[in-house]
Amino acid sequence: MSVNWIKDADEALNKAKSQNKPLLIDFSAAPA
Amino acid sequence: MHIKENAKNFHRFDAVWTPTVVVMDADDKERWRLEGYLPKDDFRTFLEMGLARVAFIKKGWADAERRYTAVIDNQPDSYYAPQAVYYRGVSRYSASHDAAELAKTGKVLTEQYPGNEWQLRSIPWLHEKSETTTG
After folding, report:
1. A contacts of B4 (beta carbons < 8 Å)
2. Counting C-beta atoms within 10 Å of the first and last residue's C-beta, which end of chain B has fewer, N or C?
């Protein structure tokens, strides 16, 4: 299963707020 | 978010190590955090605990109880299971104000997870009596 990550933090926070859903943030330093 | 693409957000969310995974609620508040890797099943349990915590903080006692019960039933041997038992008991108590729920939870933790941090935290509950309280 793939995840469509949003790379803009503010966009993700606003989307979570508008949909009243929790948000998962993943911070990585691994090579892409 | 990759550190090379989003360095400012590492500071914004206090991510000081990678990988860091944060569960936020819909009101932009952090509710759960993991630094480092976990095996797949444990990571799934971490995520379930995060959703349970979001429900718990929102005082969604029934939802929190359901989510903690799922962790206990699906991953009884996981690192998070004793914590799930603890907070399932708190959720039940918060919904009912029946102190017997705390005593029952303490008993389960003592029997199933002796010596675990969450069992130690529940020791004072073992002498709780069954009665409805307010507050």
Report:
1. 29
2. C
Phi, psi for residue B3 in degrees, rounded to 5: -60, -30
Q: Would the pLDDT of B97 be above 60?
A: yes
| pLDDT at B24 (0 to 100) | 97
Whether the CB of A11 is below 8 Å from some CB of chain B: the reply is no
For an interface test with B, the pick among A3, A25, A27, A28 (most B C-beta atoms closer than 10 Å) comes out as A27
Quick one: average pLDDT of B40-50?
Answer: 96
A20 in contact with B, Cβ within 8 Å? yes
Q: Is the Cβ–Cβ distance between B133 and B97 less than 8 Å?
A: yes
Q: Which helix (H) or strand (E) holds B22?
A: strand B20-24
Tell me, what's the ipTM?
A: 0.89
| Helical (H) or strand (E) element with B82 | helix B81-96
Q: CATH top-level class for B17-127?
A: mainly alpha
**Cβ-Cβ contacts under 8 Å for B36 (sequence gap 6 or more):** B17, B19
Characterise B36 by phi-psi region: left (phi > 0), alpha (psi -120 to 50), beta (else). Answer: left
